[in-house]
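User: Please fill in residues for this 216-position structure.
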């Protein structure tokens, strides 16, 4: 290894980390937007085409996160604590996994009728993921202007609370009105997975807040 190569390992890695983190956030937002489109499609065949794009986003995100982890292993200096970067990427990845697995469940379960609340839930998820994407793009300058990222984290909290309320009301109504046990199981699991997606998105917001507290 040359002397220049050796000392380059000690240089700050902002220019490498931030574009990769932004890419992960953009893929998350894209997958969530596609899920919101999927739920409105009239046939499962059309949904299948949207799901392929969601799966593609998940695969691309996995690749990008693997690159980030690799950089964490070889970089002596990172823009934030490596533990925070790792937790952030892991939780964003979990959020995208939930989007993918929920969409897959819809196609596997093929409920007779997708609950009306699924439309709003996917809209909430899309809004959550857009807020995450915005926040991740702000990380590079969060030490100078944290307000934008903090506002998005507050939005994540509000959206998660709305999703909780929708889910609770849905389950109550489902058990009161649905008589087909199979449909109860199918629809409960689909909407529950959507609610858990918003829980995970809120957790991303908490990690971003932690980074802001440390560095702003």
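Assistant: Residues filled in for all 216 positions:
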């Amino acid at each position: 290894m040359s002397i220049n190569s050796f000392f380059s390992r000690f240089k700050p890695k902002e220019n490498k980390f931030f574009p990769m983190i932004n890419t992960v956030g953009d893929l998350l937002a894209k997958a969530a937007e596609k899920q919101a489109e999927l739920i409105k499609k009239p046939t499962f065949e059309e949904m299948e085409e949207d799901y392929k794009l969601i799966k593609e986003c998940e695969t691309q995100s996995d690749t990008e996160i693997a690159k980030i982890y690799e950089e964490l292993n070889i970089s002596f200096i990172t823009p934030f604590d490596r533990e925070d970067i790792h937790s952030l990427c892991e939780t964003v990845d979990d959020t995208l996994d939930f989007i993918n697995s929920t969409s897959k469940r819809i196609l596997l379960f093929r409920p007779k009728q997708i609950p009306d609340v699924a439309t709003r839930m996917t809209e909430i998820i899309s809004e959550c993921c857009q807020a995450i994407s915005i926040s991740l793009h702000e990380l590079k300058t969060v030490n100078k202007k944290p307000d934008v990222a903090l506002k998005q984290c507050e939005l994540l909290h509000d959206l998660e609370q709305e999703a909780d309320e929708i889910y609770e009301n849905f389950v109550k109504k489902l058990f009161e009105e649905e008589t087909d046990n199979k449909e109860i199981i199918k629809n409960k699991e689909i909407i529950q997975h959507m609610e858990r997606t918003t829980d995970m998105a809120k957790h991303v917001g908490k990690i971003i807040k932690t980074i802001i507290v440390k560095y702003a």
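For context: The longest helix spans residues 181-215.
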